[in-house]
Amino acid sequence: MRENNLLGRTFDFGVRCLKFLRKLPSTSEYQIIKHQLGKSSTSVGANYEEAQAGSSKADFKNKVRISLKEARESNYWLRVLQAIDENNNDELNSLIVESKEIKNHY
What we know:
The protein has 4 helices and no strands. By secondary structure, it is mainly α.
């Protein structure tokens, strides 16, 4: 049986995003982004994990589609952070690259 690299990558992506979010300021604008990115980034892996036990091919495809939507949303919020950040943040840039790679993997 072939190892599913995307399972690990989506899990790690969610964890990395959550750890990154801890470092952001607590202003109202950042609170909105932290909430949205926290939900979407962890949902990528959760839905992909759930897809692995899909009750049918259609169920599997639906969960994978949801995971892709969440990956796209995560990429959006990361780009918003990049746009409002005045510093070049290597960790943020790395998360953006990973989110692009994950969404392009589907």
